[in-house]
Amino acid sequence: MPTELEELVGLVADRNPQVRLIAAEHLVPYSISQPNIFKADNLKPIHNLKLLIKDLPNTAEHIITILINLSADSEILANLASDDKFISEVLRQIIVPTEPNANLLSMLLANLAKSDFLKTMLHKKQTPPEELKSDDLVVNQLVDLFVKEAAYNKHADFDHLSYLFADLTKHAEIRHHFVRRQEYDGVIPITKLKVFTEHKSNIRRKGVASTIKNVAFDVPSHPLFISEDDIDILPYILLPITGNEEYDLEEAMAMLPDLQLLPPDKQRDSDPNIIQTHVETLLLLSTTREARDRMREVKVYPIIRETHARVQNEDVQDACERLVQVLMRDEADEKPKSRVEEIGEVKEGGKDEDDDDDQIVEV
Fold it and tell me: The Protein HGH1 N-terminal domain covers which part of the protein (predicted)?
């Protein structure tokens, strides 16, 4: 005899839409506390839930929430992420300008990107809505969604797509895509994300910072990162870690124009994890002589010096010390060990396993 809870799981697939709605609503908390009830009969409940993301909006809201929470289970995650038809449906729905559950779909995609199955997204294509003004590559469509925020869909801000990008860029081929100018708009994708390093959303800032850091593992693209005519990343990394400190006139005048004459109320990012990520990105970029010379030229050292002094966080201070050692070292004494090795000891993509944006989102 099935238990009452098992019967409730079965009611999610009932023909009556009101029954489905009530069942889905009541099952949301169990998707966190008792995920195994959804794994009965060789994951049959998961099969039903995947079909129901196309249900009426109120029911679909609960269904997607359940799937977001269940994706913390490795077996369910593998089932979801490897289902190409299901992934295609999620991607079809998220770009609809009136989709009421677009934010939840963003969270679901971000969680599914914890699986390596999702790296195949780089090659997926679909016809974009005219309003999106994108091309047929899904990755480009998602970047354009992220940039447009609520101006595209009043129901969504798409902040969690930044976590999706952060996980996708663990893969070398996707990192390569993010630093290549796209034919449809002539823009390098990572430059669309860099402008959000000082955004009001902590989620967006954190995900973008991790994405930039992961893409910086593509060492051959470092000249593009430094070039003012290409990615020009330095101002967007340095501004979030800069406060309202006063510098010597000689130091200040040599800094990048965006960092000169900052307002007295300028604050550095309040999240030490984001600051650490930006400093580690600078350390990655210091792999090349050209980038090191540029950072010395625009007085990155004084900014790092003040960050080290004012951010009372051991990990931030450690990252600052490593970067200072590189910038202050005589080039004749430069050791052959790459900064990619130094930071990449964690895993490819340079993301620590305890990074907040590397965690499964629960709703």
Answer: 93-276
For the chain, how many residues are written?
A: 363
Q: How far apart are the first and last CA of the chain?
A: 31
Dihedral of CA atoms 35, 41, 43, 47 in degrees, nearest 10, equals -120
Q: Which helix (H) or strand (E) holds 258?
A: none
Contacts of 285 (CB under 8 A, 6+ apart): 216, 222, 225, 226, 233, 291, 295, 339
Which tens digits make up the pLDDT trace of 72-91?
999 999 999 999 999 999 99
> E strand or H helix at 228, and its extent?
none
Does residue 70 contact residue 76 with C-beta atoms inside 8 Å?
yes
At 58, the amino acid letter reads N
Judge whether residue 336 has pLDDT over 50.
no
Residues with Cβ < 8 Å from 93, sequence gap 6 or more?
53, 54, 99, 101, 102, 105
Domain locations in the chain? 218-343
Kindly indicate the confidence band of residue 337, based on its pLDDT and cuts at 50, 70 and 90: low
pLDDT digits (tens, 9 = 90+) for 118-155: 999 999 999 999 999 999 999 999 999 999 999 999 99
Identify the pLDDT of residue 120: 93
**Residue 137, strand partner residues:** 125
What is residue 218's predicted lDDT score, i.e. its pLDDT?
96
The kind and range of the H/E element at 318 are helix 314-328
Here the tokens at position 15 are: 């023909």
- The distance between the two most distant Cα atoms of the chain, rounded to a whole number of Å, is 80
CA distance 270 to 54: 39
Mean of per-residue pLDDT scores for the chain: 92
Report CA torsion sign: 269, 356, 352, 140: negative
Give the pTM: 0.92
188 close to 175: Cβ distance less than 8 angstroms: no
Confidence of residue 292 (pLDDT cuts 50, 70, 90): very high
Per-residue b or e along 63-73, where b marks 16 or more CB atoms closer than 10 Å to that residue's CB: bbbbbbbbbbb
C-alpha distances in Å from residue 182, one per residue of 29, 185, 213: 43, 6, 21
